[in-house]
Write a sequence for this structure.
């Protein structure tokens, strides 16, 4: 490798991909000992990725062979990083004893995630092994609604006592730190288990041993409610930049914490859901593209397509209504795709920006008049430019009559302005009436503006040609 | 408030929004003392939000009045959380001395972010105040490409020495901890400043004072290169779940670290860019919806609209080519929106899923054949269902001839399958040739499938009606 090539070698191109492909090749050739050597050189996140890729390319049985090569203390950590499909695939095929030892080693919140996805009979089998107290705690956590803060949190946080000094706090952390989800943020509660304040490990390690926690803890801490939607939780993380967030119940008692590493996954899943909906795919299963069957995909695509088809039928009705106009001036049909296309695209641009603005909290419902005014003005400028280009093209290039050109371009002007305004307002309206604004994206807006486009176009044409 | 209402009171509805609106109302009524009292009750993130909202509603001058009410030690922190537009607005209107004291108080990485956005003459003025050494460091950081790991990192990390024991390390952290971006991950370097290993504060506070760092540090640490794109960095954070990531230069020397709280912002900005491109808006400025002018918006929307209009003109050409067919059977036009609509929407669904799959790393280029086969099968099922519905509707409800119904539905079947395959493949093709796959979303796919739809429809019609 030349010096210049070396300089270009970045994180993306490090040898992990090579090691991964090597392991899969070795497994395929049944060279298990060498595959294992390669696997053990990887950290847990990479090992999990190799197992997922193995499942993808060589099937679940081979993935299990690979999974079993992991040392016991790593297996649980790797397992918790696998997709829920692969987790299920493994857990239903290994021995009960193996399942038990993996579950026992996992962090509490990861374990809950796994249990939530497993069939009830397997969960029961696992719960049988737990102590009565553990079982009770697990059941409480399993009962929090999916996608709630409760379903994300862990009870393994560090509690400190207000009357302790820094020395006592550090001694306590030394004792319990390894079993906690995080040691970097610790919590102080009152007798009613209500959150009194937060103590960061940074503040502890930079102070003298005699300082009292009461003097350095942060009161009025930000928290989330156990029933808050996980989107609310991730917004709070983004806003405050915390490493961990306390979760309280309705009586304001501290019941758990959520750590930032789990939020990265939540953000990714929420974003995927938003983007899918904007593309007209409605699927709440968090399944990845290749992990779902053909009929699962059909189920998440067909209903919305049918709805949009019905909307397209209305557009057809509009054309049917103007069939005589069209029969007299068939060249009108030539510019129909152009009008529908630019209308749909103009509207989609506006709705995309407003949907995203709502999602990141920049646009609120009360901004509706501002959005409308903005989109109206943008629409005028954009429509003016496109219609001018189009007028020249239709009249001079296509050599159509000036009447046809004026009809098409006049309609285009109207359609684009309407599309921009609709695209700006509909996501806000959706939010107002409790529908996900993401549904008001390109597919829906295009279908809707198609109808408007046909109507405006043919109405104008009837008028221009006196039909 | 009833008990039930209280129980529903969640994070989103806490009093912050009320305090915010109260402050703005007080400012508007020039009741500055009471506005200040309210402001001081807020944490930095909330205070920043109030200032942004004030700028939005009452203008920048009032926002500056509010900003100046902050105590000195909070001002820098609040400032670093403002949007870059508000930062510029403030910095160009306050005194040089005020600017100097804010900049001096800011974290290094936040300061670089601010300097990157400021006009050169202001940056020069600020640099004049810095020591020669600081100036050199700032200039190095300012020279990293925008959107690179280098532009995100901070040099304020803690370096420990391999030969130290835990006690010595903790004593060092106590001394320098308050000036570091994070104390929770510390770094050990060799003499050539290359990264030797990582020591977490958790491992330090849970071990005895005599343990040597050489025995507990993690070697083979994951790192990113200073020129890696920030998307690569955020992928690495998602995968490994770290709180901080070391950044090395091309000689593998440790030059800085990136902390997870900054990555949350990066993920949001990258997602916004992806979503905007999928909606046909191409804008690399990171400006929010209301922060950009009308002509900025036009500039980011018009080029793509023109391109898509040209594509729609091709569709028009196809119709023009078949004008005689259309003139003979004008009722064919009625089903054109339906065919174009379902084609576009079917294709958009596929492309949305593949674009997202590429973005999260689930789908790779080598998966192209799998994607094609999948979309082909999904397309067949979806097309079958929609065409069947449509056939009944056109023949029985619209009472069109069986010939027209068969033409429309046969064309629909072909179009949907083609659209699904195109939607699945085009994002992969774009990635292959180095274009952002996000551009292959709904607007582009719809425009493309429109052309196919018209062609397939009228070809079939010509054949069916023997024209």
């Amino acid at each position: 490798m030349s010096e210049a090539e070396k300089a270009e070698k970045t994180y993306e191109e490090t040898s992990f991909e090579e090691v991964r492909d090597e392991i899969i090749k070795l497994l395929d050739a049944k060279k298990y000992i060498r595959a294992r050597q390669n696997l053990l050189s990887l950290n847990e996140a990479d090992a999990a990725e190799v197992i997922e890729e193995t499942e993808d390319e060589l099937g679940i049985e081979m993935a299990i062979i690979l999974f079993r090569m992991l040392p016991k203390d790593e297996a649980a950590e790797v397992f918790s990083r696998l997709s829920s499909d692969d987790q299920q695939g493994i857990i239903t095929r290994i021995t009960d004893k193996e399942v038990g030892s993996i579950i026992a080693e996992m962090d509490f919140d990861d374990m809950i995630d796994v249990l939530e996805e497993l069939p009830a009979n397997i969960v029961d089998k696992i719960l049988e092994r737990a102590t009565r107290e553990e079982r009770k705690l697990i059941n409480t956590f399993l009962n929090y609604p999916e996608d709630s803060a409760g379903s994300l949190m862990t009870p393994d946080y560090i509690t400190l006592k207000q009357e302790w000094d820094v020395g006592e706090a550090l001694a306590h952390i030394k004792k319990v730190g390894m079993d906690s989800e995080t040691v970097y943020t610790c919590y102080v509660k009152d007798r009613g288990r209500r959150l009194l304040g937060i103590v960061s490990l940074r503040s502890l390690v930079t102070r003298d041993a005699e300082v009292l926690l009461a003097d350095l803890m942060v009161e009025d801490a930000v928290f989330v409610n156990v029933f808050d939607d996980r989107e609310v939780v991730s917004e709070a993380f983004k806003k405050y930049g915390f490493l961990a967030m306390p979760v309280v119940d309705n009586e304001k008692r501290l019941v758990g914490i959520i750590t930032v590493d789990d939020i990265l996954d939540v953000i990714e899943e929420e974003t995927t859901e938003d983007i899918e909906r904007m593309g007209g795919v409605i699927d709440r299963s968090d399944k990845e593209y290749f992990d779902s069957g053909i009929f699962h995909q059909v189920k998440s695509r067909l209903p919305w397509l049918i709805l949009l088809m019905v909307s397209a039928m209305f557009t057809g009705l509009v054309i049917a209504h103007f069939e005589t106009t069209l029969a007299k001036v068939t060249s009108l049909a030539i510019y129909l795709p152009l009008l529908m296309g630019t209308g749909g695209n103009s509207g989609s641009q506006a709705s995309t920006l407003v949907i995203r603005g709502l999602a990141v909290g920049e646009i609120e419902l009360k901004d509706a008049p501002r959005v409308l005014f903005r989109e109206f003005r943008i629409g005028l400028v954009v429509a003016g430019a496109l219609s001018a280009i189009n007028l020249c093209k239709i009249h001079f290039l296509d050599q159509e009559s000036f009447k046809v050109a004026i009809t098409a371009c006049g309609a285009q002007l109207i359609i684009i302005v309407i599309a921009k305004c609709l695209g700006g307002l509909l996501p806000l309206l959706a939010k107002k009436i409790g529908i996900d604004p993401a549904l008001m994206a390109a597919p829906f807006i295009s279908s809707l503006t198609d109808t408007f486009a046909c109507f405006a176009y043919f109405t104008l044409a009837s008028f221009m040609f006196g039909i």
User: Anything to note?
Assistant: The beta strands of chain A are 159-160, 185-189, 195-200, 224-225, 244-248, 254-259. The two ends of chain A are 75 Å apart (CA to CA). Chain A touches chain B through 128 residues (CB under 8 Å).
